[in-house]
Amino acid sequence: CYRENILKTAKALVEDTKLLVSGAASSQDKLAQAAQSSANTITQLAEVVKLGAASLGSDDPETQVVLINAIKDVAKALSDLISATKGAASKPADDPSMYHLKGAAKVMVTNVTSLLKTVKAVEDEATRGTRALEATIEYIKQELTVFQSSEVPEKTSSPEESIRMTKGITMATAKAVAAGNSCRQEDVIATANLSRKAVADMLTACKQASYHPDVSEEVRERALRFGTECTLGYLELLEHVLLV
């Protein structure tokens, strides 16, 4: 029942995505209508996903988290898409903002597809862990793309904060190795959820610290490079767990 509702609402959201992209080249009214429609649809989708997560029961909280994370990814992608659409409105087809818009739309569709795969996997206990790991790998890749962009963070933090956040990576690594050894679905799901947060927190802290006023250009470049290398190394670890 929930799966059918999620599927139907997700399809409606994909249609809203198409309207948003085409709306950038049309009138402000059409663009506003498309944005409002997509906002209504994502609210409905979040509700049916939450009901689906609740139906799993409280004895499987990690799988509930996987589902909630999937809808959060879709909501974030939609927010980015609406922002990209506003930036591309009334611009010529070869304007850089149009390429950014196409990229945002692609991420949006990827995340909706990922949500639907996750919903399907939830019904099959044998594939829950694998799917959770695949979704986390995709999420980390998207976070790394944001990290590597030229966008300056809204706030800065101290290098100490960045160092503190690397401890989460250490914990998540130990969890990933243990999951690879045990091959238990619940261990893999827990690893996927922990890895997602640990890497995202590290990337945020690293970028914020690298733009601290006291940090030189050379040190910033090194910090950003090491943040990227750390993430790529962790992705490789998760890929190995997935293979196992």
Sequence-ordered SSE layout with sheet pairings:
Elements: H1 2-23, H2 28-54, H3 61-88, H4 96-122, H5 128-148, H6 159-182, H7 185-210, H8 217-243
Helix pairs in contact: 1-2, 1-3, 1-4, 2-3, 3-4, 3-5, 3-7, 4-5, 5-7, 5-8, 6-7, 6-8, 7-8
Task: Output the radius of gyration.
Answer: 19 Å
Distance between the termini: 33 Å
Helical run tally: 8
Annotated CATH topology of the largest domain: A middle domain of Talin 1
Description:
This protein has 244 residues and is mainly alpha-helical. It folds into 2 domains: 124 residues, Talin, central domain (A middle domain of Talin 1), CATH 1.20.1420; 94 residues, A middle domain of Talin 1 (Up-down Bundle). It has 8 helices and no strands. The longest helix is centred in the first third of the chain and has 28 residues. The model has no long low-confidence stretch (mean pLDDT 90).
Brief sketch in words of this structure:
The protein is mostly helical and 244 residues long.
Question: What tags apply to this protein structure?
Answer:
244 residues; mainly alpha; 2 domains; 8 helices; 0% strand
